[in-house]
Amino acid sequence: MKIAVLLGGSSPERLVSISSGRGVINALRELGHDVVAIDPSLGPDQISESELLSQAVGANPPTTEFLSRLSHKNYLATVESKLFDDVGLAFIILHGKWGEDGIVQSLLELREVPYTGSGVMASAIAMDKVMSKKLFVHHGTPTADWYDYKVNSRRRPDSVKQEIAKLGYPSVVKPNDQGSSVAISIVNAEKELDAALDEAEKFSDVVLVEKFIKGAELTVGILGDQPLPVIEIRPHGGFYDYHHKYTKGMTDYLVPAPIEKSFALKLQEMSVKTFASLGCKTFGRVDFRIGADGTPYCLEVNTIPGMTETSLVPKAAAAAGISFKDLIGKIIELSIKGK
User: Fold this and answer.
1) Residue 250: which domain range?
2) 258/133 same-domain check
3) How far is the first Cα of the chain from the last one, in angstroms, to the nearest whole number?
C-alpha cells in the first residue's frame, strides 16, 4: 500500500513530529509499504525527504519567530495536490495544532483519503484541554480544578489573577491547545504569574490554569480498545517539561510502573473509559497525576502521541512484548478497520 506519512507542520511541536515521523517511515518500509513523507506546511512543492528528516529536536521548542516563517495555509493546497492522488492511507504523525486537532483530518475526509487515529470531532475535543476537562467531569473522571480565560490582546482583566488566587498556589499554567509541554509553567506564587501567563498567551487564544497535583505522574497507552502497561514518569529535577521530554537522560521511565497491581488495573480501566468518552480510537495515551489521597486525576488525552525514541507509547508497547514495527503495523490494521 502507498502510505503518506504526514509530519512536520507549523505547530511548536514541528520538530517532535519530524522525529516521530522518522521512526514511523522506517517501520512502514520494513513492513513493505511504499512510503512518501509529506510536510503539509510546505505546500505542493516539497523538499527532499532527507532534508526534511534531518531536522532534529532540540532542548527547547522552535521560537515563535521561526514558526512564523511556516504556513498552515499550505495544508489545504497540499492535501488538494497530486501528492495524494494514489495514496491509500495517510499516517498522521503531526503533533499539536493543525495536525492533532481535527483540521488535517477534515481535509483528508474531504479528499476521501483514509487516515490513522481518531476522527475529526474526537481529535478536536482532545486537543482542547478545557473542553476535555468538562467531559471528564461529565463522565465522572477526576480532573484537577481549573480556571480558563480567553486572551484579550489589549489587556489582561484584573479578574484573571483574582480567579487564579482562588485555586491557590502552586498552580499550572498552560496554553489550552498545545502539547509536548510547550509554554507550560508551574507557578508557586503570584509574583511568578505574569511571566507564566505571558508565555502561555503566545501560543493560544485560551489559557488554562490548573490546581497543581503534587504526586506521581503516570500514563497509559491505548491500542485499539486495549490498555498498555502503566508507565511512571520521573524527571530529574523540575517537572516534565519540553526539555525533560526530549533530552536523553533527563527523565526516568519506569515500565511497568512500581504500583500495586490493583491500582494499575484501575488506571488502565479508567484510561480506556476516558479515551472512549471523548470518542477517540485506534491509539493514544491518557495522562494522570496521583493526588495525596491516592486519587488519579486525569490531565489530558493525547490522540497522536509521540513516536520518538524517548516516547511513551512505544516504551509501553515494548513492555507488552510489541515491537515498534509491530506497533506501527497494528495502528495501520486498526485504522483500516476503523477501530
Assistant:
1) 127-141+215-337
2) yes
3) 19
